[in-house]
Design a protein that fits this description.
The chain is of the alpha/beta class and about 240 residues long. It is built from seven helices and seven strands. The protein is globular and about 45 Å long.
């Protein structure tokens, strides 16, 4: 990636709940923004079972986005644990994709055991195709060149790509997670992200911390190609 990113550069994270974007991709989002790349997050659910908590959670998401230098946030407004029709969600997400035109999409990986995480992985994958499918009769091809899948609560067994980073980026990632006060108090999100990042950095990365991804589709000239290592060493092997 050149330091001067093209105006069309756009990384979009699809997050099941507010806080998943910071936990799984908070490092690479910072670096992308620092390179002048437009970054956005689409929150599929508000992450709350009680509607009176939704405004608070959305404000927290905006605060976290400000810390991570995310340019735009979008809320689809589905209730946590209550996504009934995957096609309806995929169709709505496809409309957002056509509107904001991402070039790189980051989704949860499909083996996530949390129900919302797993469903959003499948919905997001479908939406990347549905947005620009031949059935839409659009005059333009899909701008999406790369789709990477990130980890939240279920670690990826064998990452296909890693983004490595140091303490300065980890500290900002923790600060973003601390915006979600209830979740951070309940799950110690910052400590959990630090621990997972240190493990990834030790086993696969080229720095103190790392974020891991599976590759759903990838182009070597995509905008993140110089930020990630697509040939991470496999733990327990030599040579």
């Amino acid at each position: 990636m050149n330091d001067a990113a093209k105006p069309s550069d756009h990384v979009v994270v699809v997050a099941p709940h507010p806080d998943d974007e910071a936990f799984g991709t908070g490092g690479i989002l910072q670096h992308a923004a620092a390179k002048g790349i437009r970054t956005s997050v689409v929150f599929v659910t508000d992450g709350e079972l009680h509607t009176d908590h939704i405004p608070i959670r959305r404000d927290q998401a905006r605060d976290a986005a400000s810390i991570l230098h995310i340019h735009d946030t979008y809320f689809l407004g589905y209730a946590a644990r209550k996504m009934r029709s995957w096609y309806d969600v995929a169709s709505e997400l496809a409309i957002v994709f056509r509107d904001i035109e991402p070039t790189i999409v980051l989704l949860p990986h499909v083996a996530e055991t949390d129900l919302d995480h797993h469903m959003v992985s499948m919905v997001g994958s479908e939406a990347t195709w549905l947005a620009y499918s031949p059935h839409q009769h659009l005059a333009k091809a899909s701008p999406i060149s790369t789709v990477l899948c990130y980890e939240i609560w279920t670690p990826i067994q064998r990452p296909g790509a890693v983004y490595s980073f140091q303490e300065d980026i980890m500290a900002v990632k923790e600060a973003a997670l601390q915006c979600y006060t209830d979740e951070d108090n309940r799950y110690s999100l910052g400590s959990a992200a630090r621990g997972l990042g240190a493990y990834r950095g030790s086993m696969y990365g080229e720095a103190t911390f790392a974020e891991a991804f599976l590759i759903a589709s990838y182009r070597s000239d995509s905008r993140l190609s110089q930020l990630i290592n697509t040939h991470p060493d496999t733990p327990g092997t030599e040579g």
